[in-house]
Amino acid sequence: MLVSQIGEFGLIDRIAGILPQQCAGVIKGIGDDVAVLDTSGPEYLLATCDIQVEGVHFMRDVITPYQLGRRVAAINVSDIAATGGDPRWALVSLAIPADMEVEYIEELYRGMREQMGLAGAFVVGGNVSRMKSAIVVDFTLLGLVAPGRLTLRSTAREGDAVLLTGAPGESRAGLELIRRPELALSPFARQRLLEKHLCPQPRLDEGRFLARSGLVTSMIDVSDGVIGDLSHICQSSGKGAEIEAAGLYLSPDLLEAALAAGAAPLEWALSGGEDYELMFTAAPEAVPELKKMLLEETGISCVRIGRITAGAEVVLRLADGARVVPAAKGWDHFGG
Amino acid sequence: MLVSQIGEFGLIDRIAGILPQQCAGVIKGIGDDVAVLDTSGPEYLLATCDIQVEGVHFMRDVITPYQLGRRVAAINVSDIAATGGDPRWALVSLAIPADMEVEYIEELYRGMREQMGLAGAFVVGGNVSRMKSAIVVDFTLLGLVAPGRLTLRSTAREGDAVLLTGAPGESRAGLELIRRPELALSPFARQRLLEKHLCPQPRLDEGRFLARSGLVTSMIDVSDGVIGDLSHICQSSGKGAEIEAAGLYLSPDLLEAALAAGAAPLEWALSGGEDYELMFTAAPEAVPELKKMLLEETGISCVRIGRITAGAEVVLRLADGARVVPAAKGWDHFGG
After folding, report:
1. Using an 8 Å Cβ cutoff, are A110 and A249 in contact?
2. Which residue among A126, A290, A328, B334 is buried most deeply as judged by most CB within 10 Å?
3. In terms of DSSP bridges, do strands B136-145 and B86-96 run parallel, antiparallel, or are they unpaired?
4. Does B106 touch chain A (CB under 8 A)?
5. Interface residue A7 vs chain B (CB under 8 A)
6. How far apart are the C-alpha atoms of A154 and A143, rounded to whole Å?
7. Most A CBs within 10 Å, among B1, B45, B56, B139, to test the A interface
8. Residues A3, B99: C-beta atoms closer than 8 Å
9. Angle at which helices B65-81 and B102-118 cross, to 10°
């Protein structure tokens, strides 16, 4: 059987089946974005990694090395943000062709340093290796979280409201502008959407604030798309969910880009990945206070996009009342 | 300027120049094999990683996926062993072509599980991604060490004896047998040397014992070759060293393979990398007791191969008294 036949998540299931399930010191292991580990210290250790491959995750002629450095760091900071924790230290493994410019590598690390600095974190180790043709960057980020502030994807409760920060789908729109640079768009919208895709800003302060509020029952960062990551929450919580299409915030820039591309903005918002916004759940009665406090504390808005149900599926309720089970399950790196 | 012009260690120097030098919670950062981090817990956190690239570090038709899994885990366990610490948890990033057999990946993780199990450690997370042609495995290993037991490469003292476990150069001999399978060798020697190269056994118990003894002043694992890694000890300790060629243990299997290959066994022993033995320093008067105790406790022999000097170079003293400064600085992944 080939990897392409079972897809990314099928492969992860197979790998999880081989690895031991109960491990000393492991609070959360395989299957979550972030491993949560007990070092016998006052805080839990958080560990996450993300491998970025040239030609798969990025194109060298589209993203500058500085942007790439920021991006790989941001993606991992976003995972730590969703736990409510603090990023601290990173290890970077780099595989590159021997004929690369040293300046390219320096710019890459400048980008990482900058993004890590914004999070109060540092690159403290790693290794470099030769690779025939492509650039591969694997970024491993360690963080710490007080046990009482740890938020997980697996703890959503039936009846909880589902909330989302920011404007989903904008990263997908930015990707479309890279693929089809001929699309006619206002310069400001084009620049914003490209930046959203190339240089996402992780919601670190927001994650910490939400965890501290004590009002959030589960949280995840949106890397696999709204439906994909809500499915992750539902599967690991043993619940279902209903998304109200009318609840999603579709930004003017997103609408402009989708119109230019002849695409459905709702589809981009629901299934476009790599937004790195936070999706979280809370009791319905806590929602008004939570929205108000998040805006006051961080300047970031969130909207209510649905609710957790007793079911096992993520169902989409359209504005006309029709209920559909969306096929799009988010990004799958093997197209399985 | 190209990466191939400054080499692996030149590139690491450039990267270190960009990253901040003083970071909160960092006991040892860039430049060591293992980052040593203070989580405010009772033990220091250890973090190391190693990226293995098909076609550079391994060939798919030479090493089985199970052996590859053991090998990538072993390489990292060896780094933790040299600190005197305990391996605990690993994250694995994998990039593979979509047309790979799922069974290959399962065997790879079985190998990792097995090697980690021997160390009392577990794979607890990671991620998988598509890659056009080659397999890339990045293995990040976390460990813990009591602050009083941490051994570093940077604390060798002038006059210390330099000691080495095992039989250096055997991994290099195994590599030669892979490159030139036509070489005539006794079947047992061939099998042992191939295993030494493909499935190295990290010296974990030995590292823990040596750290616990309180007699070791510095330690490193031999991945870059005896000269290469002694140079790392010397550079980070601000010292020099003298190796006595006659002190090295050249195993019968190594001699047989070098003879068949028309190669110099001493050169393989000094500059062949990937032995994953432990090299350490201690006061000369402690050597007899240390050798005896290590053998009794772990069954592994070590030999005295030289001493730390006030100089700045690693000098080799041949059996006839001639002193040479060896050119070979060990493995450089960019051939710089």
Report:
1. no
2. A126
3. antiparallel
4. yes
5. no
6. 20
7. B45
8. yes
9. 30
What single DSSP character describes residue A83? T
B107 touches A at CB < 8 Å: no
Question: Is B98 near chain A, with CB under 8 Å?
Answer: yes
Positive or negative CA dihedral for B227, B229, B231, B237? Answer: negative
Inter-residue contact A229 to A312 (CB < 8 Å): no
**Dmax (CA) of chain B:** 59
> Which tens digit of pLDDT belongs to each residue from A266-318?
999 999 999 999 999 999 999 999 999 999 999 999 999 999 999 889 999 99
Say what the pLDDT of residue A133 is.
84
Q: Name the CATH superfamily for B35-149.
A: PurM-like, N-terminal domain (3.30.1330.10)
Q: How far is A209 from chain B (nearest CA, A)?
A: 22
- Check B125 against A48: CB less than 8 A apart: yes
Does the CB of A96 have a partner CB in chain B at under 8 Å? yes
**ipTM computed for the complex:** 0.92
Distance from CA of A59 to the nearest CA of B (A): 13
- Among 3.20.20.70, 3.40.50.1820, 3.30.1330.10, 3.30.870.10, name the CATH number for the domain at A32-149: 3.30.1330.10
Chain A residue at shortest CA distance from B86: A39
Cβ–Cβ contact B333 with A under 8 A: yes
Do A32-149 and A161-324 share a fold?
no
Map tokens 């195993």 to a residue. B251
Do residues A164 and A39 make contact, with C-beta atoms less than 8 angstroms apart?
Answer: no
pLDDT tens string, chain B, 336 residues long: the values are: 999 999 888 998 999 999 988 888 999 988 788 999 999 999 999 999 999 999 999 999 999 999 999 999 999 999 999 999 999 999 999 999 999 999 999 999 999 999 999 999 999 999 999 998 899 999 999 999 999 999 999 999 999 999 999 999 999 999 999 999 999 999 999 999 999 999 999 999 999 999 999 999 999 999 999 999 999 999 999 999 999 999 999 999 999 999 999 999 999 999 999 999 999 999 999 999 999 999 999 999 999 999 999 988 999 999 888 999 887 555 555 653
B159 in helix, strand or coil? coil
* Cα–Cα distance for residue pair B230/B311, rounded to 1 Å: 13
Residue indicated by tokens 């250790």: A45
Contact B91 A140 (CB under 8 A): yes
The pLDDT tens digits of the residues spanning A46-84 come to 999 999 999 999 999 999 999 999 999 999 999 999 999
Structure tokens given for B11: 């590139």
Residue holding tokens 């997370």?
A: B125
pLDDT for the residue B33: 86
Domain segments of chain A as ranges: 1-31, 32-149, 161-324
Which DSSP category does B4 fall into?
Answer: H
Of B18, B34, B42, the CB nearest to A109: B18
